[in-house]
Design brief:
The structure holds two protein chains of two kinds. Chain A is of the alpha+beta class. Chain A has a single domain, classed as SH3 type barrels (Roll). Chain A is built from two helices and five strands, in the order βββββαα. A five-stranded antiparallel β-sheet of chain A has the order 3-2-1-4-5, with helices on both faces. In chain B, the strands form four sheets. Chain B has a five-stranded parallel β-sheet with strand order 2-1-7-8-9. In chain B, strands 4-3-5-6 form a four-stranded parallel β-sheet, with helices on both faces. The longest helix of chain B is centred in the C-terminal third of the chain and has 21 residues. Chain B is globular, with a radius of gyration of 21 Å. The chains are: A alpha+beta, B alpha/beta. At the A-B interface, strand 5, helix 1 and helix 2 of A face helix 3, helix 6, helix 7, helix 9 and helix 12 of B.
Chain lengths: 89, 375
Amino acid sequence: MCLAIPGEVVEISADRPDIARVAVSGVKRLINIGLLGEKPVPGEWVLIHVGFALSKVDEGEAKAVLDFLEGIGKSYEDELAALRDSRIE
Amino acid sequence: MRFVDEYRDADKARALSARITALCEPGRAYKFMEVCGGHTHTIYKHGLEDYLPEQVTLVHGPGCPVCVIPMGRVDDSIHIARTPGVLMTSFGDMMRVPGSGGNFFDANAEGTNIRMVYSPLDSLKIARQNPDLQVVFMAIGFETTAPSTAMTVLRAAAEEVPNFSIFCNHVTIIPAIKAILDSPDLRLDGFLGPGHVSTVIGCRPYEFIARDYGKPVVVAGFEPLDILQSIYLLMRQLDEGRSQVENQYTRVVPWRGNAVALRAIGEVMELRPYFEWRGLGFISHSALRVRERYATFDAERKFDLPGVRVADPKACQCGEVLKGVLKPWECKVFGTACTPETPIGTCMVSPEGACAAYYNFGRFSRQRVREASRT
């Protein structure tokens, strides 16, 4: 749970403006974007921590963080597995 | 060295290493604490200590939220989980943290229902789906995680979910840093400030460290080059006789933090008068509890808790490791009685814990250094 992982915003929920669908390493899940002062638009990247977007990041930073996370191995795999099981709505 | 082999920016790392070395005063030893467990992980994983001159030592701090939960709070959670009709939920990282009578997995083997979740929102959903059960979320984490718990409580309140509550164990980083600064055991020259916590609290809360204690602070990113560059910035401040808060991680950390997140915490939670930290003991105003107005979502008010303080096992030296007084390998049980498979202390449980990070990566790096020095 200590990790913050980058995800690309795919769409903002039509009826729930605090919920967005994001793609993280091929997994698409809903997350909460209610903590962001400035809401993201599809195509933008966010850092996700325990189901909430913590901050917006640019694509270059997102890619660098992804490279880094893929390099750390098991902790990232565990985090992705947990995210896959998540059913936030 | 792993870093040279694997990391694409090895040349930049070597250049930073040379600049750090050039700033070392002859005969002076430099000790910097990396507060965050994520930094510890990077340092061991990439063998960053091999890139530093011998005069510069990195000391691992208390910034792993799993590691600082005392045994008594684990026992209290298991006590709640044993109440008939309770479904407890927890981040996976907490499942193997030992209490005095075993961890969450052991408790489940004896009949409790403690389920792993990714997000507090998953816990809230479980509560909605199981109206006949009391669903309790074991909330842990620094200011990085507390806003998510707070937002979940706000949502539970808005949706009037009566069977959801949180067992609040959120801690705040600043009092822990202050406790370390006031500890006579350790002399530090500066701090690598935590990255993700700072996205929420910003950089200003560290200013007292620079102003009152005269120590530089550099808020650092998580990649190997971020950490080396931050060490260089600390060395430059010392060289120029400055002590300031600098932000190396501007890509993600705003100077003023995240106002929405801070408001959410402040709405739902308030500071406790004191809280016990594993290894550091009781620290004033160092943790959060649920405010009275959200009492129906507070497991501490809903359930009777034993609240018994449990001393750490005698053999365990997590306290010294968390304060940076001991390196992981200097603990008596490191790697023998205490391993990631059968952890005695919390520092071995979480992958961000200094002992687990060192066990998984660092010992190989040291071995390589030793082997290299023999040939």
